[in-house]
Amino acid sequence: MGEGLKKALVGGFAVLAVGCLAYIAFWDERSGVSTSLADHRFLQDINTGKNYRVDITVKDYGPYPHKNRSTGEMSLYPTEVCYWDECGEKGGTRVILNTWRKQPEPTKCPVCGHTVRVHNPRPPGYKDDK
What we know:
This protein has helices at residues 3-30, 32-38, 85-89, and strands spanning 40-45, 51-55, 66-67, 74-78, 80-82, 93-95, 107-108, 115-116. It is an alpha+beta fold and 130 residues long. The relative contact order is 0.11.
């Protein structure tokens, strides 16, 4: 293989690689699905237990708790969803973990009593799993 052909192949692969990386880097910005999912969180008021779907803005990305726009209090925390037992039958129960409450014991679902943890798994064979 000639020297000129080698340089052309290497140059072509380099251009292709840069193009692929640029496409991957900007794809997420153009995808409405992933950005819309990232723009909101389900938070729960630690005082009332009421759940809120909160649209997150840049100024909201500070540490928890977040400000409850209804009450003005800093009382909104992220939740995990329990899908076990009767919770799964009704689509899940949102639970604030005890780590947010500064309590050392494991978090128990207030409805079914199952232990809830970070990235809480669904039970085997859950109806929505495919």
